[in-house]
Amino acid sequence: MENKKELRTWLDNLQLDHPLVIAGPCSAETEEQVLKIAHELKNTDVNYYRAGIWKPRTRPGNFEGVGALGLKWLQKVKAETGLKTATEVANRAHVELALEHDIDLLWIGARSTVSPFIVQEIADALKGTNKIVLVKNPVNPDLPLWLGAIERLASSDIKNLGVIHRGFSTYEKTKYRNNPEWQLAIELQTKFPDLPLISDPSHITGKRDMIFDVSQTALDLNFDGLMIETHHDPNNAWSDAAQQVTPSALVNIMKDLKIRKESDPEAAYNNELNNLRAQIDVVDNQIIELLGKRMKVADNIGELKKQKNVAVLQSKRWNEILGKMVLEGEEKGLSEEFILRMFKAIHQESINHQEKIINS
Questions:
Q1: Helices 247-256 and 211-220: crossing angle, nearest 10°?
Q2: Known PANTHER family for this protein (predicted)?
Q3: DSSP per residue over 256-267, as a string?
Q4: Distance CA 337, CA 239 (A)
Q5: Which pairs count as long-range contacts for 325-331, CB under 8 Å and 24+ apart, including other chains?
Q6: Which residues contact 226 (CB under 8 A, 6 or more apart)?
Q7: Please, is 88 exposed, middle or buried when counting C-beta atoms within 10 Å of its C-beta (0-12, 13-18, 19+)?
Q8: Cβ distance 8 to 43 under 8 Å?
């Protein structure tokens, strides 16, 4: 993309003294619900009031949104509270209706980002608009697909662009609803440092009690803002009840978050250092996750060896692994000494796991 500096203009123009905040219910349910939440958020740090009007559901039969009627409720939100409005669009018809009702910010959802055809249709419908358009990462961890969606929108002369990191689906069970895969957001940020980057901790976690920690990690990684689903009665929400917080809980989250500010050269240095340390924390957590997975495989091997009465230590296999890892480590700039010490420790832990199973 050319003229990357222009991409941050809309965010800079807001002149905020806190991260950008987009908040509101996962789904617009009733006019009363939409307006009640909006009035509870109007004197907070919230900059844009979000509500899902059209809800893409994995399986039919679930609540799929109130449709265009909800756009009139968002118009009332703006008139009564002064809050700017935001909603998701997934096709040309959605775009045309959202523009007709003067919605200020539109985002493309994760299920739409996976399809270049859908993104191109939306880009054509939005051509030349001055509305803010944000692109959620695709469901699968595919950075080129995410960037491709941004490039299609930029090619349609849409300058007020940004991205939303909402995590990625995985077949493995983790503590997250959608695994954050922070390294992909970091890589995108590295490629386009002036592209506003928003975190969606609600969809990453799927649990309201994890939202604060994920939000803090995002801010430590220099994200520009947060999109947090907020409902006055989250336990009875019509969709994604477990991941929504109350307006008062949102206020407390924003109050407790540590914001890194750059007011002098020393502060700028500390901010960069904290960002790099946050990246190390992300990688360290990934290492622990991978080691845990490796030991589960070792446990399965131990069960198999126990059934077949096979010795735990297989020297030929071990030497093959060690030689291969030394070569691959050298390609990554890692010393042979380090690789040997690390994999000997991992190997010993695997032996301990297998011996415990065989001797049980």
A1: 40
A2: PHOSPHO-2-DEHYDRO-3-DEOXYHEPTONATE ALDOLASE, PROTEIN AROA(G)
A3: HSPPP---SHHH
A4: 53
A5: none
A6: 19, 20, 21, 22, 198, 199, 200, 201, 215, 218, 219
A7: buried
A8: no
C-alpha to C-alpha distances, 78 to 25, 40, 53, 75, 202, nearest whole angstrom: 15, 13, 16, 5, 24
Partners of 87 in beta bridges? 106
DSSP summary character for residue 210: G
Q: Which two tokens stand for residue 183?
A: 């390294």
Ranges of the chain with pLDDT below 50: 3-4
Domain spans in the chain, listed from the N-terminal domain onward: 4-259, 267-358
Instruction: Look up tokens 């009733």; give the residue.
Output: 30
pLDDT in the model for residue 139: 96
Structural class in CATH, domain 4-259: alpha beta
Tokens 């430590």 belong to 220
Tokens of 22: 């987009």
What is the per-residue DSSP string for 276-291? Answer: HHHHHHHHHHHHHHHH
CA distance 55 to 112: 12
* Spatial separation of the C-alpha atoms in residues 318 and 328, rounded to whole Å: 15
pLDDT digits 0-9 by tens, 156-209: 999 899 999 999 998 878 899 999 999 999 999 988 988 999 999 999 999 999
CATH code, residues 267-358: 1.20.59.10
Residues 6+ apart with CB under 8 A from 63: 27, 55, 57, 238, 239
Report d(CA 76, CA 79) in Å as an integer. Answer: 5
What stretches of the chain show up as alpha helix (H) in DSSP? 9-13, 31-41, 69-81, 92-100, 110-113, 116-126, 143-155, 182-191, 201-205, 211-220, 247-256, 265-308, 315-331, 336-358
pLDDT at 64: 80
pLDDT at residue 1 in the model: 55
CA 333 to chain centre: 30
φ, ψ of residue 227 to 5 degrees: the values are: -115, 110
CB atoms inside a 10 Å sphere around CB 194? 15
pTM of the model: 0.79
CB-based burial, 270-308: b 16+ in 10 Å, e otherwise: ebeebbeebbeebeeeeeeeeeeeebeebeebbeebeee
